[in-house]
Amino acid sequence: MPETITATREITLGEAVREALAEEMRRDSRVFVMGEDVAQAGTAFKVLSGMVDEFGSDRVLDTPISEAGFTGIAVGAAMTGMRPVVDIMFGDFVGLTMDQMVNQAAKVHYMSGGKWKVPMVMRATLGATRRSAAQHSQSLHAWFCHIPGLKVVLPSTPYDAKGLLKSAIRDENPVVFYEDKMMFRFKGPVPAEEYTIPLGVADIKREGSDITIVATSSMVHVALSAAKLLEEEDISAEVIDPRTLWPLDEKTLIDSAKKTSRVIVMDEGYGRYGAAAEIAAVIAEGAFFDLEAPVKRLCAMHVPIPFSPPLEDATVPTEKTVFEAARALLGGK
Amino acid sequence: MAISVVMPALELAQETGKILSWIKNEGDSITKGEPIVEIETDKITFEVEAPGDGVLAGIRSHAGEDVPVGQTIAWIVAPGEAPPAEAETAAPAARTMTATVAPVAEAPKARPAATAPEPATKVSPKAKRLAKELGVDLSRVRGTGPDGAITSEDVEAAAKAPAPAPQESTALSAIARLMAERTAQSWTTAPHFFLTRELDAGALVDARERLGKAAVTHTDLLVALVARVLLKHPKMNASWTGSGIQLHPQVNISVAMAVTDGVVGAVIPNAATASIQDIAALRKELTERARSGHLRPQDVTGGTFTISNLGMYGIDAFTAIITPPQAAILAVGRIADRVVPVDGKPGIRPMLTMTLSSDHRVVDGAQAALFLNDLAEAIREPGNVL
């Protein structure tokens, strides 16, 4: 069931992220923010505007351009009792942090026999169509999904972003939290009162009976638009947002696939060895004998993201591609 | 040294054989020549004899299975010896079993074991599962899914729809299956053409009276006459090989005989030189064996021309489907009294209608007509030929 949100208040996804951070920083003095341009500039996307005024430059730390360095600082800080939240402006820059994340953050708890833990959060962005070209437009979240010891969160709404980020900060493990850079101004209802959303619970954004569309991050909204188009054709589409790619709510995905027997998986990362591939495999393994058709992936085109607007737009699945794919899976009905 | 027991090729066009039952079990000591397994080939059942002494081991194919000709179905090993692993299965069929069955020695050995699979209709996993649960025969379901795939909805619809016909026998016997395959193959690949002759069978009837009605049938006489006429028409006694025409020096007449599940062609070898009495005796023997289901491989192999007589069923005339790889078949109707002109006046004569089906890749209409004409002459005056 879609979670019922009683709030009449609507805020943007960027505001929801800021609220989550501010609330957790008020709640827990060990929480601090670190990254390039997070303090005075409030990040390149203005998500953290004003944070430094409330919490001071000791807890909202501007760093040099040094992703590997400040991510390493965060790992060490987390090991020694702090709860750092690092900001990776463009998700494309995570390459610089990989040794710290993959070999240190993800492994320390295991290598120390459980004596150390790394309760840190890395916030990063994904998503194309911002005309930022090939080095600032990628969606590389699948990289982290591959590593045992890391959790990966991809919220699609302000409500989910706030509730999930609070859970991520409170989690005892390293969590990578991906925000779509095109969605910071996306508005949605968020209650004023305190709430959290557990990691590992998918949300059915729209109920349907003929086809399941599993979508992540901003693709959820593309899926919802496509579902409306399909409804005009008397095709009832269910839209599921896994919300966290790890832990993955396999049961919700498989149950829906069993119910509708046809599945499209959308993700803005590359399809090849990507998040959608994993979800498709989970569904194929769990619901094979209830499927009417192969599970269909709709992902970013397997190319460097072009700067040219028309070319860039062509690399991302649209409601039309979802609509066509859904009709094809239904045998052109 | 282990000896392989392979599925024998007992007929020219045989592709698979079915294991009916194992007479011997794994571990049994056996001596050369002892029957060890009963198989059903295209037209007969046959006991395969042990190709050597030893212990039966490594049975790979079990009762009910269809096995490609030439494939190893078991091994005969020394006591304590383990049967060889997978390799050697593709060894030619002839080495062991076929050597005990004389007519098969010259069977083509390079025949592919199986034909290319037909493009299968797609069935969704859900539909497949549902079909099993509901007992729906997927071959009767039309798919409406992507690429015409059968979906569970199609299966459900088929389950609700009244069965189109009572379930026909799903398990075809080897004979019925082969008849279906061979006639379809012949009809769809061999360009048939048909020539019909109506002729006076008075002399044939007289000849039978003379030879003794109990001893000789009209079919026997026709076998002898057709065989002798074929000597002058080698192209009627031939095969299309795919790239050319193969003439057969020997005239072996297949006589179509009804058996429980279909029809078999029992072969009268060297019918052009055999006496009418020998032909009659052999034909009688074959008829009895066909009736009791005891035809041997050599009884049904090597035919070069077929005669099918439905006269005893009251059929006036019919067209027959050529038995591959033969080039022609003669369809014989009943002998019936008809009013025909005799010396310019209406007279009553025993008349017979014959229809010759020929493969146009091997013979043309004129050649077939000349053969039929000579045959008609021979029937008009059988004494000149016999």
CATH third-level topology of the largest domain in chain B = Chloramphenicol Acetyltransferase
Total domains of chain A: 2
Q: Classify the secondary structure makeup of chain B into a structural class.
A: alpha+beta
| Major sheet size, sense and barrel closure of chain A | 7 strands, mixed
Helix segment count of chain B? 8
Examine the secondary-structure arrangement and name the CATH architecture of the largest domain in chain B: 2-Layer Sandwich
Number of helices of chain A: 12
The overall pLDDT average of chain B reads 84
Poorly predicted residue ranges of chain B:
87-118
Question: What gyration radius of chain A follows from the Cα positions, in whole Å?
Answer: 19 Å
CATH architecture tag of the largest domain in chain A: 3-Layer(aba) Sandwich
Strand order of the largest sheet of chain B: 9-16-15-14-12-13
Order of helices and strands of chain B: EEEEEEEEHHHEHHEEEEHHEEEH
Binned, the helix content of chain B reads: 10-25%
What pair of chains forms the biggest interface?
Answer: A-B, 13 and 12 residues
Shape of chain B: globular
Notable traits:
heterodimer; A: 333 residues; alpha/beta; Rossmann fold; 2 domains; 7-stranded mixed beta sheet; 5-stranded mixed beta sheet; 14 strands; 35% helix; 20% strand; globular; B: 386 residues; alpha+beta; OB fold (Dihydrolipoamide Acetyltransferase, E2P); Dihydrolipoamide Transferase; Chloramphenicol Acetyltransferase; 3 domains; 6-stranded mixed beta sheet; 4-stranded antiparallel beta sheet; 16 strands; 25% helix; 26% strand
